[in-house]
Amino acid sequence: MDEILVNQTLNQIGSQAKRAAAKLSQLDTVTKNRLLNQFAAELVTRTPTILAANQKDLRAAVDMPAKFTDRLKLTEQRIKDMAAGLRQVATLPDPIGNLDRGWTNEAGLLIEQKRVPLGVIAMIFEARPNVTVDASALTFKSGNAVILRGGKEALNSNLALANTLRYVLKQAGLDENIIQILHDTSHQTADDLMHLNRYVDVLIPRGGAGLIQAVLKNATVPVIETGAGNCHIYVDQFAEEKMAVDIVVNAKVQRPSVCNAAEKLLIHQAAAAKLLPPIAKALEAHGVELRGDQRSRAIVSSIKPAQDTDWSTEYNDLIMAVKIVDDEQAAIEHINHYSTGHSEVIITDNYQNSQTFLNQIDSACVYVNASTRFTDGFQFGFGAEIGISTQKLHARGPMGLKELTTTKYVVRGNGQIRK
Amino acid sequence: MDEILVNQTLNQIGSQAKRAAAKLSQLDTVTKNRLLNQFAAELVTRTPTILAANQKDLRAAVDMPAKFTDRLKLTEQRIKDMAAGLRQVATLPDPIGNLDRGWTNEAGLLIEQKRVPLGVIAMIFEARPNVTVDASALTFKSGNAVILRGGKEALNSNLALANTLRYVLKQAGLDENIIQILHDTSHQTADDLMHLNRYVDVLIPRGGAGLIQAVLKNATVPVIETGAGNCHIYVDQFAEEKMAVDIVVNAKVQRPSVCNAAEKLLIHQAAAAKLLPPIAKALEAHGVELRGDQRSRAIVSSIKPAQDTDWSTEYNDLIMAVKIVDDEQAAIEHINHYSTGHSEVIITDNYQNSQTFLNQIDSACVYVNASTRFTDGFQFGFGAEIGISTQKLHARGPMGLKELTTTKYVVRGNGQIRK
C-alpha cells in the first residue's frame, strides 16, 4: 500500500531489503558471529578512511554547538569501541530458531511457536555515527535486514561505516543489501520511509522528542516508540533518609542527558519537612536547579517556582521539579497522568506501600528502592540494547535481540482436515 | 498528540476509558469471572429488548443482500450462543499477573517481567453485533477497557448489547466506562479514533479487506492487522493423492468465506499430470470455479484462464486459482511474493522438502500435511480468539487473551545506585 507516496529509489531499496532479509533469515549462528567479528576487524583496518570521512562532516558542522559535534566526532578509540561492541554482540545467544512453546492440539497437530526475524527494520536517527554500527550489529545478529536513515550532518561518516560492513558481506558472498543506508537525507525521503508499508516490518526512531513525535504522528508502518523519559521518584512517608538522598542524587546527576535520568521528585507531606532539606542540599551541591510547588518552596526557600509545563517536561539536564503530595495515591495519580511511561521509583520501607506502587504504576519499569538509571539493556543483563520502548505493543522497556524478532507457528500434521 | 484532530466527545470517551482501565487493571480474576457470568445471565434476561433493537436495524437494512442481513440478524439462539461464549471466557486462565521471567542482575536487583493489561483497546468492526459481546468478553477478562465502533447498520443492536453489559458493571459498583460504544458511527469519528494516540493503546480492526486497508493507511495509533488471508496449498512432487485431495477440498470448501480458507493451489510439475485431475474433479464436484495458468489448463481443460490479479486476490468464495510450478523453490518464491502472510501448506512425504518449506515460508502459520482451516484460536486450543494477526509486531497468528496483554518490569532493590 501507499506506493504512490514513495519515490522509486526507496521502493527499490525496500525491495532489495526484503530479498536480502529472506536469505539472511536462513543464515546459521556460527556464520553470523564470524561476520560480526569480521565487521569489527574491517572497521579497525579502515580507521584512516573512516576518520577522513568524519573530518568532512566535522568541517561542515563547525558552527554547531559543542554537544552536537562531540556526538558526531569519531576517534581511533571510538572506532575501537564500536569494534568491541560488534565482538560483544557475536558472543550473545542467538534468539532465532528458539521455540517459545509447543503442544499437540485436539486434532493431533504438533504446533510449535518458533522465533524468526521480523524481516526488514528501518531506523531513523540523528547525527550519531555509532548508531550505524550498533544498529547494524543487533539487526544482523537477529537475522533482519536494515534500512538506515541517519542525520544529514553525519552522512559521510555513516556511509564510510556502512560501506565497511557492506564490503565484508560482499566478500563473504552474502547480499550486501542486508545493510542499506539512505544517501538521500531529505525530510521527504524520511517521510516516504515512514509510509513504506509494503517492505518495512518495523520502524524504530532513535533521537530526541521532536524526532520521535514526528514519526509517531506520521508513520503508517509499525513503529516502536523509544526513549521518552519523564521519570519520577516518589519518596514515601516511610523512606530512609540516606537511601533517599543517594538514589535521588544518582538518578538525577549521574548522567542527566539520558532518558533514564530522573526528572521529578514527589515527597509525602508527612516526610517532606525532614527529607526535602537534605535531598535538596545534596542536589544543589551537584549543581541541580530545583523548581517546586508552593509547599516545597515553603520548606526549602532556594527552590524556584514550577510552572504547569514543568510536570510534563523531560529536561535531560541538571534541573528537577519537586512536589509535595498528600499521600501515596496522589503520587500514583500524578505519575500516571504526567509520566511518559518509562521508569518510576518509590523509596519506602513499608511493604504495603511498595506493593501498591508496583501494582498501580503504569510504566515500563517500576522500582522499589533503586535508581531509575538501571533501566538499560546492559544493566538488565541483555548484553545489548537497541533502545528503550515506552509503548505497550510488542516490546516494553529495554529492548535486546529478542525484541527484534517475531514468531511463526510451525504445524506438523499427517493429513488432518477440519471437521 | 494529535488532539487537534479529535473532537471533544471522542477525547472524553478516551479519557473515561483510560480512567476505567486503571481501575480494571487491579480487579481480581474471581470478580472478573463472576461478572462475565452475570453478563451472560443479563443478556438472556434482556432477550426481548435486544431482539426489538435488532428488528429496528433489520427493518432499515431491508434492501441489503441476504449475506449482510444474515450477519446482522439476532435470534434467541444467537443470544444464547453469545451468553455461552461469555461463560466460556470465564473458564479460561487469566494471563494478568503471570510472570514471564525473573532474575537477579549484577547489582542485586530482582527483576520480574510481569503480564499486565494493554490499557485501552479500540475496535472498529462491521455490522456483526456479536463482535460487541465477543470483543467485550475478551478485553474485560484481559483487564482492558474497550472502545467499540461498530457498523452504523447495527447501531441499535450494538447499543442494546453494550448497555446490557454496562448495566451489569454499574450494578456491581464498577466503572461502566470499562465498555464504551460510539454512538456516532460517522467515518470522521472512525478516523478520529485512529488518531487518538493519547488514549488508545491498540486499535484492532475486524472486517473486510477495505476496512483493514483504510485503518492501516490512516491510523497513527498502534494497530494489529487481522484477517487478510490469501492462503496457499503447495502440492509437492512427493504428495500422497488421497491426502492432497482431502486437504485441498477441506481448505477450500468447508467454509469459503473465512480468512483461513485456501485461495491458491500450486502443484509441482512432476506431479501435476497425476494429481491435478483428481483434485480438480473433487473441487468442481463441490462447485468450485478453477482459474489457472497455461500449464494447468493443458492438463484440465475446464480450468478458466487466470489473470495476473488472481494471484493476489482473496476470493472468500468458491473460486481457486491453480499454478504449476517448476520446483519447491519456485513455489516458495511465489508464496512469499503473493501471500498475505496468513497460512500456507505443503503436502509432501519428503522430509527435506517439508523442512525447507517450514523454514523458508514467511507466514504466521506454516503447515505440513494439514488443512489451512486449523488457523483459529479455538482449533489451536486457546479457548478464544480476538482475530488472526497477519503482521509481525506484537502478535502473529491466532490471538487469544495473552495477545491482549503487555508486560512491565517490576524491580526490587535495597538502595542500589548506578556506578
Automatic annotation (TrEMBL), chains A, B:
All copies of domain Aldehyde dehydrogenase, residue ranges: 11-287, 319-409
GO biological process, one term: L-proline biosynthetic process
Gene Ontology annotations for the cellular component aspect, listed alphabetically: cytoplasm
Broad class of enzyme this protein falls into: oxidoreductase
Catalytic activity: L-glutamate 5-semialdehyde + phosphate + NADP(+) = L-glutamyl 5-phosphate + NADPH + H(+)
GO MF assignments: glutamate-5-semialdehyde dehydrogenase activity; NADP binding
This enzyme's EC code(s): 1.2.1.41
Compartments, record wording: Cytoplasm
Highest taxon above the source species: Bacteria
Coiled coil start-end: none
Keyword entries, A-Z: Amino-acid biosynthesis, Cytoplasm, NADP, Oxidoreductase, Proline biosynthesis
Recorded metabolic or biological pathway in which this protein acts: Amino-acid biosynthesis; L-proline biosynthesis; L-glutamate 5-semialdehyde from L-glutamate: step 2/2
Function field: Catalyzes the NADPH-dependent reduction of L-glutamate 5-phosphate into L-glutamate 5-semialdehyde and phosphate. The product spontaneously undergoes cyclization to form 1-pyrroline-5-carboxylate.
Family: Belongs to the gamma-glutamyl phosphate reductase family.
Protein name: Gamma-glutamyl phosphate reductase
Species annotation: Lentilactobacillus farraginis DSM 18382 = JCM 14108
